[in-house]
């Protein structure tokens, strides 16, 4: 049983995220905590040098509000004892940083079958597995 599990959930993969959350519920200690994490990608960080148009701050804030509302509903639906974290940045680096900050025992991350783009830039799950300071369970 684990004391602290981080469950990153992408808003465009809610069904898979809910499945991963079910796994976390089975593995968490009676006194443990599940941290539901959503990472809002900072698109402006990627856009530098490639695009002239900045993404409006309101767009990022709306993504954050949507994530909080969605994860709160998911937390209530499953009766999760834990909390929600919304962070901005690159997904893999942010997941790994939170795992280190929280001294997490486990990260459970959903993965998809790799597509062509994954072979060029790598998938989030593979970068989390490669650099995470704790155990990682990848659910496909």
Automatic annotation (TrEMBL):
InterPro entries: Rossmann-like_a/b/a_fold, Universal_stress_UspA, UspA
UspA domain span: 1-138
Pfam assignment, any one: Usp
Highest taxon listed in the record's lineage: Bacteria
Family, similarity comment: Belongs to the universal stress protein A family.
Name recorded for this polypeptide: Universal stress protein
Protein source organism: Sinorhizobium psoraleae
Lineage: Bacteria, Pseudomonadati, Pseudomonadota, Alphaproteobacteria, Hyphomicrobiales
